[in-house]
Design a protein that fits this description.
One of its GO terms (biological process) is cytochrome complex assembly. It holds the Pfam family AhpC-TSA. GO terms for molecular function: peroxidase activity. Keywords: Cytochrome c-type biogenesis, Disulfide bond, Oxidoreductase, Peroxidase, Redox-active center, Signal. By secondary structure, this protein is of the alpha+beta class. The protein folds into 3 domains: about 25-115, Sandwich (Immunoglobulin-like); about 115-240; about 245-375, Glutaredoxin (3-Layer(aba) Sandwich). The protein contains 11 helices and 15 strands. The radius of gyration is 24 Å and the shape is elongated. The N and C termini lie far apart (about 60 Å). Residues about 1-20 have low confidence and may be disordered.
Length: about 375
């Protein structure tokens, strides 16, 4: 089955046989990997790799062990593909003490089999593959439409007309498999294909020995992440609601001097949460500069740089010639991102002259400029 690649990483141990406890044995034959792969074990909680290295591939064949303390995603990406920023490799649910056999083509489709867990996983894989293929094709089509210049709103509307039906189809397939195989540990692994409360419903279908066994560490990460996001969204609705007192903060400006939000009271202020890494943020700058000049003196923009180094932040401000105020939201500073429960980038929050939230816009939304026209054309 064709899988989405997440990142990089592992250490080769040229051995054969059944995997020892605390290790996952990975072997197989796959075209398109090149002469080596970067292998990595992902820790979703820490959002980094707990283990990574490079292993050789000989004649399209590989055979190595990965140390694992618990069930976790393991990624294997062709080193040459990684250097060229293209996808070629595979991702597996890594289970300590098991052996996985992978075969296929690194840039297209591959199959997973092996010891008992992976035999079960193969059964599930075959069932969900057609639906995941439809979802991937929809995503590919949406990207193609964007590339052709179709408006973001039109592409979003097209996606919204297709995606819910496909997601329902995927859920029905997964729940059908879990109901038929509640004692399969592979049923628990399917949680990564679900969204929201559907993940919790899947876990309820599992036999107690599976639900409370070694797969618990794996599926709990996805459910805990969903619950945290849900809580964050609920908080965002409260702190970003119109009429709410805008949380005050003090961050250093581009000259290294402290700037307090409340010091700007008396005029409208647009809090622009952005980063130099954010493509949509950068694309929006020309229009923002146009409106900043159009209503000069009637409002202020406070750019809040997020998830950047100070060097990249300052370089981006200079490169794009952004004339408004700027502050840096680094890890050591007061976290305005948490204060406002920011859900995506760019996010523009308009604060009125009295220091209350007037309106919030997530994404590069034309409605933001329509709103400014409504405020200042009076």
């Amino acid at each position: 089955m064709k899988k989405l690649l997440l990142g990089v990483v592992l250490l080769a141990v040229a051995q054969t046989g059944i995997a020892a406890d605390g290790k996952l044995h990975i072997k197989g034959k796959m075209t398109g990997l090149g002469d080596s792969v970067v292998v990595g074990v992902i820790d979703y909680v820490a959002q980094n790799y707990v283990y990574r290295d490079t292993v050789p591939v000989k004649g399209c064949e590989f055979d190595f062990y990965v140390p694992l303390k618990k069930v976790a995603p393991v990624q294997c990406i062709g080193l040459s593909a990684l250097r060229e920023n293209r996808q070629a490799g595979f991702t597996v649910v890594g289970v300590p003490g098991e052996e996985v056999v992978v075969s296929g083509e690194a840039t297209d489709r591959y199959d997973i089999n092996g010891s008992r867990f992976y035999q079960q996983y193969h059964e599930a894989d075959v069932l969900v593959e057609p639906v995941l293929k439809e979802i991937n094709e929809l995503m590919t089509e949406c990207r193609a439409r964007m590339k052709k210049g179709v408006s973001r709103d039109s592409v979003a509307a097209y996606y919204d007309s297709k995606a819910p039906g496909l997601q329902t189809k995927l859920e029905q397939t997964i729940f059908g498999f879990a109901k038929a195989h509640p004692t399969y540990e592979a049923s628990a692994a399917l949680v990564s294909h679900l969204e929201g409360e559907q993940m919790q419903k899947l876990v309820e279908l599992l036999a107690p020995e599976v639900r409370d066994g070694r797969m618990k560490d794996y599926y709990s990460v996805f459910i805990d992440s969903y619950l945290a996001q849900k809580e964050s969204k609920e908080r965002a609705q409260k702190v970003q609601a119109a009429g709410t007192e805008a949380p005050d903060f003090t961050l250093n400006d581009i000259a290294g001097k402290p700037l307090k939000l409340s010091s700007l009271r008396g005029k409208y202020v647009v809090l622009d949460f952005w980063g130099s890494w954010c493509g949509w943020c950068i694309k929006g700058f020309p229009k923002m500069k146009e409106y900043y000049a159009k209503y000069k003196g009637k409002f202020q923009i406070l750019g809040i740089d997020c998830n950047d180094s100070q060097e990249r932040w300052k370089d981006a401000v200079k490169k794009h010639q952004l004339p408004w105020l700027h502050v840096y939201n680094g890890k050591a500073e007061a976290d305005a991102v948490k204060l406002y429960a920011i859900q995506g980038y760019p996010t523009k929050i308009i604060v009125d002259p009295q220091g209350k939230v007037a309106k919030t816009f997530v994404g590069e939304d034309p409605a933001f400029y329509t709103y400014l026209d409504g405020l200042f054309k009076k």
